[in-house]
Amino acid sequence: MTRATPGNGRSRQLPTAEELRVWRDFIETTEVLRSRIASRLQSESALSPGDYAVLLALTEAQGHGMRSSELAAHIGWERSRLSHHLGRMERRGLISRQECATDPRGAEILLTPAGAEAFQRSTVPHLRAIRELFVNALTPDQLAAAGEIAAALRGNLAPPQRPA
To answer: pTM of the entire structure?
Structure first.
């Protein structure tokens, strides 16, 4: 078997022992990092990472609102998962749902003043945790390499383009 190299069109069917070691290190470290950042977010702001993702998307959206289907696609969640999560957020007063004016089957998700305030209060502690647990652990070259790695993985995971 030959090793995959850019342009040779050949690849091994299974990863090598070293590739598996790197994979496991990557996955295990990423999970610990996500868990610690989530724990800090929850303890410092009473928001879950899901809450933060929804509030961030709504904060950045024009008019601080989005169709629920658009929001699900934006944060990469299944629509049923998002629907259940939005119900919990709505009960806490962080978002509101309104019937969509252009499509009565759809809902418009809106950021409430309480949601905007919760997001604003959480942002600095959340960004501080990212700096402490991720950015500060890396040299500038490692941080740049991490960005390149993330871009390569994202590119490989993108759905194939259909011919026009």
So the answer is: 0.81
What is the residue whose two structure tokens read 């604003």? Answer: 120
**Where do we find the tokens 């709505």?**
90
Q: Which of 120, 130, 118, 115 shows the shortest CA–CA distance to 38?
A: 130
The rounded distance, in Å, linking the Cα atoms of 67 and 74 is 10
- The C-alpha atoms of residue 87 and residue 155 are separated, in whole angstroms, by 33
24-79 pLDDT per residue, tens:
999 999 999 999 999 999 999 999 999 999 999 999 999 999 999 999 999 999 98
Residues 58, 86: Cα–Cα separation, whole Å: 12
The DSSP letter of residue 36 is H
- Which residues are CB-contacts of 137 (< 8 A; sequence separation ≥ 6)? none
